[in-house]
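As described in the Methods, two query proteins were run sequentially through the folding procedure within a single session, without resetting any intermediate state between them. The first query and its resulting C-alpha cells are shown here.
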Amino acid sequence: MRTEAERQRALDELLDRQEILDCLYRYARGVDRLDPEIIASVYHPGAIDDHGVFSGTAEEFIEWVQGFHGERHEVHHHFVINHVCELDGDVAHTETYFLFAARNTQGTPHSLHGGRYIDRFERRNGEWRIAARVCLTEWAAGLGPLDLPPYPREFPGISARDRTDTSYDRPLLTRRERAAAA
C-alpha cells in the first residue's frame, strides 16, 4: 500500500504526463485547423522547432506552417500515436510517433507520412509547453484512388481549416437539432 506522500507524487506525475499529452493533442488540432492561437499555446516563447524542411523559432514556425500546409494541402490530419515521457522535475523529454495524412493540391492526390516528434518540454509558471522540438519524418507514401462503390455522403457539419470548423461550435448541435431549432 502506498503512503499518502507516494500517492500524491504518483498523482502529480500522472497530471504532468496528461498535461504534456494534452499539449501534443492541441498541437495536432492547431496545425490541422491552421489556428495560430492554438499552435502558439503549445510552445514557450522563443522555442525552437526543427522540422527538417523548416528550422526556427516557434513564432516563425507558426507563420511557416500555415503557408506550407495552406498552399500544399486541401485538408490534412495529424495523428498522435505512441508516446513516451521521461519526467525530470520541470523538464520532460518525450518521443511521440505521428501519422500525417493529406489531400494534396498538387502532385500525388493523397499522401501519408510517418515519423516522430522528439520534444523537450519545460514547465514554466506551472505550464508545460514545448521548449525544443525535432521532427523526424521517417517515411512517406502516396495513396491511390479507392475502388469502392459510390455511396451518398453528406457532411453533418463544416470541415474547415479555420474557426468556422464544427469543432469550434459551442454548443455543438447536430443536423437534427439545428433543423428543430429553425
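Immediately afterward, the second query was submitted; its sequence and C-alpha cells are:
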Amino acid sequence: MKLFRFFIILLLLNSCSFDNKSGIWKNENNISDEENQIFKEFKSISYAKKKFNKIINLDKNFKFNKSKTILNLSWQDIFYSNDNNFVNFNYDNQNKLIFKSKRLTKNITSKHILFDENNLISSDKKGNIIIFSINENKELVKFNFYKKKFKKIQKKLNYIIENNIIYISDNLGFVYSFDYKKNKILWAKNYKIPFRSNIKISNNKIILANQNNTLHFLDKKNGEILKTVPTEESLFKKYFRNNLAFYKDKVVFLNTYGSLYVLNIKSMKIDWFINLNQSLDINPSNIFTSNQLIIYENKIFVPTNDNFYIVDILTGSTVIKKNFTSLFKPIILNNILYTIDNSLLIATELKTGETIFSYNINQKISDYLDVQRKKVNFRGFMPVENKIFIFLKNSFVLKFNANGNLDQISKLPEKIHSNLIIIDGSIIYLNRKNKVAIVN
C-alpha cells in the first residue's frame, strides 16, 4: 500500500506540473496590478494592534450547508452584481480550453472584462472599447471616444452595461454612454475631475465618484448632474479606489478617506456615515486602504487595512469587527464569510461571528504535494460549486472545500491577464496576448 502511494505521488509531481519546476511557487514579479499595489500599501502601515496570524482547526462536528449553483449567463458589472457579492457559480470543471480568439489589441488592456449577450467587452489604455462576439469569433466594434489631443494620455476606463448601452467614466473627467449595438455615442459630459470608482445604475440614475471623493448622481438619459455629495477629500491619491454597492433603495459609498456613507437613492440624501480609518492620526493625508465592499442580508462587509468590519446598513452600527482583513473582495457562501489575509484562508460563521477555521494556504499546498513549503502569489478567489477557487498569478487554481481542505490543484491552459468571470459553466478571461480564452 505504501509503495502504491509513493508511485501515485511521484506520478503527480512529474506529470501534473505541480512540482517546483512547474512554477506553482513562483512569484511573477513582472505583474503589477492593483491588487499588488494595494497589498504593498497594507504592508506599509504600522499597526498598533497585532494582526491576526493564527491557525484554527475546524471543529469536526461543524456542519456546512450546501446551496444550489447558479448557471450565470452575463457579467454586466465589474463587481458582478449591485451588491458586489458573488453567487455560487456553476462550472463544468473539466479544465479544457474550448475557445481561443485572435488578439483583441496590441495595447495594454484593462483587467476588467464584461459579458453581455455572448459578447465580451474590454478596453485598453488608448481608450478603445472593444466588443468581441464569441458566437461569430470576431471583433464587432472597436470604438474610441477621444480626440487627438488626448492621444498620449493613458486612459483608465470604468464601465457598466445596461440594455446594450455601456456607461463609461475615465481618469480625464469624462462620462459618456455608448450604444454598442448601434456603434453610437448617445451623450458625453466632461466634469474635469478624474473619476475613481466603479459605476452603479439605479432606474434613471447613474452613480459614481471622482478622485476628490465627491459622489455624483447623474441622469442616465443625458448625463446631467442631478446632485453631488461632497465628502472628505484625501490629499494622497492611492491605488485604492472609491467603491459603491446597492441594497434595495440604499447606495453604500466607501471613500478613500475611510468614511462609509449610506444614502437614499430616491432622495439622494445621506442616511448616516461613519469613519473606519483606525489611524491615531486622522487627517486628509492619512493612508487608508480597503478592498471592494459587499452587501449581504442588511449588512455591509468592509475589509480595511486594519480590520474587517460588518456594519448594519440601516443603523450604521458595527455588528462584528475582526483583526484581519481581506486581500480580495470577500466571499459569502452558505452564511460563511471567507477571506484571504496573510496567506491564510479564514472562515467566519456569520450567525455567531466566530472564526471557525484559519489555514495557511502555502502549508496546504505543501501538504498536498508533499514538498517543502514556499509562497504563492494570489490573484483572486470566488465561490464555485460549493467550493472556494483560489486563482494564482501563475494560472494555477487551488480548489478548496468549504471546510478548508485542499481538494485539487490544476493549471488553466492559458496564462491569465484579466479578471476571471464565469459564464454558462465556463471560465472566461484574457490571456497574456490579449486573446479571449474559454475554459470549461
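Confidence is low (pLDDT under 50) at residues 1-17, 38-48. We note this only descriptively and draw no conclusion about the first query from it.
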